[in-house]
Amino acid sequence: MKAPIPDNEAERLRTLRLYRxxxxxxxxxxxxxxxxxxxICGTPMAAISFVDETRQWFKSKIGLVNAETPRDFSFCAHxxxxxxxxxxxxxxxxxxxxxxxxxxxxPNIRFYAGAPLQMANGEALGALCVIDTQPRQLTDQxxxxxxVLRRAVVSQLELRRAxxxxxxxxxxxSICAWCREVRDDEGGWHPLHDYVNETVQVTHGLCxxxxxxxxESWEA
Length: 220
Hints:
This protein is of the alpha+beta class. It contains seven helices and nine strands.
């Protein structure tokens, strides 16, 4: 059974794009957290995954061969629907997963525990998960550790984004003198507003001049 689409899917995907994490290379900081999760929970597989429109993609993984799987098969697509840990003690006895190709075929998942990577705005972008080929349970201490580690993953994402935003802020933009569109690193052109929204976290307000014009329009 594939996971339902969250009601906040459009905003969730927009937030995912802002972090510019998809299809990036391996990073030691994420790999260390994945290794720690597997060691604490005693599982042969663990991953940090992100879920976009069509797939779950692994930023970091242990014991898994594929770099991604279709979203329709994704356990983590179910995890992003929850605020707390998603625990599947035996996938062959869970109606959501018993006919899942990842259960029936390699990697033959039986146990799954996923901690949603929930950002400050409430959007869950993916999960820190541990996986086993045998049914099992987690202790209270292991559940607590996964919750702590997922917060560490989120902190790493925030740090990574802040550094990227800082680099962008210090880089000269190539802007068309006629239409004011901005050229990205791949040579594509975008409206300035769209480019800023995609690359830098911004808040919207009114400058004093525009605020005065708004007041004048209200009073007219």
